[in-house]
Amino acid sequence: MSGEPSGPAGSDNSYVSIEGRASGWFEALIEKGLFACAALSVLTTIGIIGVLIFESAAFFQEVSLWEYFGSTVWTPLFSDKHFGIWPLISGTLLTSAVAIAFALPFGLLAAIYLSEFASDGARRILKPALEILAGVPTIVYGYFALIFVTPMLQKVIPGLSGFNALSPGLVMGVMIIPMISSLTEDAIHSVPDKIREASQGLGAGKLETIGYVVLPASRSGIVAAVILAVSRAIGETMIVTVAAGQQAVLTADPRVPIQTMTSYIVQVAMGDVPTGTLAYNTIFVVGATLFVMTFVMNIISQRFAQSVRGGR
User: Fold this and answer.
1) With 80 as the cut, is the pLDDT of residue 276 above it?
2) pLDDT for 108-146, tens place per residue?
3) Coil, strand or helix: which one is 73?
């Protein structure tokens, strides 16, 4: 038996060794590819922030911070130039406030129904149907607000201008309802059933359990959904560009034309303003301001979620 050849066993070992090295190379290649994808996203973010900082620094070499944050007039494209950002901020917050005031109750009630009352069959039909609203192009929403919603509102609201903050705000609310309802429904649905059963075992009814137990238990997810929806509304471009107008005025009246930060960027980016001029640099400083606003909101959302989890 000792005279039998040992070649086949050695060949098997060589084959396993080669296969192991090939598998190791493949895993290393996949790891490097995943790292490259992650690094690309980080470098893209750094590049965007770098451009905003560089161009904003060029703007503030000619315009003081006091004028930017202290003035209430925004006319960088006029002969009499003023660079007070507050009219654009107020227009952005006004339309976003209208959108959230409309979307929050509808989105929250829809989420409660889908999670607590709807059957499995109804949930499978209604939730995708509701999320179709998120797939409608925003330019379609914009013209819908301009040619349908605004004329309808003018019949019941006196003094409503053809361009206004109310109409695009309401349509933006329709657009973000799926975001609020979907994320809120996921947060409510993730509450363990034993919590509901414990509440009902103590004598609470279904509505009492939802109001006093389920919603407080899922408040971190609900607040995160609302803040994400607000960020989406603040960053919306085409709806306000089409239906809100291009008059940068500091007002809280949703019936009059306004201009948001995103619609101003679109106006300047159309190509009528020469590249490299002070008026052109305003789109970067406005973009940087918008970036800071949404970044702060995301930080608040994360801190709130952490505080809620830490308090449990």
Assistant:
1) no
2) 999 999 888 888 888 888 888 888 888 888 999 999 999
3) coil
Task: Identify whether residues 143 and 181 lie together within a single domain.
Answer: yes
- Whole-number Å distance between alpha carbons of 307 and 198: 25
Mean pLDDT to the nearest integer, 246-268: 90
Residue 254 sits in the same domain as residue 138: yes
Q: What's the domain range around 35? A: 23-61
260 and 227 within one domain: yes
Measure Cα distances from 182 to 136, 143, 216, 231 in Å: 16, 26, 18, 16
Q: Is residue 186 part of a domain?
A: yes
How many domains would you assign to the chain? 2
Question: In the numeric block, which tokens belong to residue 43?
Answer: 């470098």
**Could you tell me if 185 and 115 are in contact, meaning their C-beta atoms sit under 8 angstroms apart?**
yes
Residue 77 lies in a domain: no
Question: What residue type is 47 in one-letter code?
Answer: G
Q: What is the DSSP letter of 80?
A: S
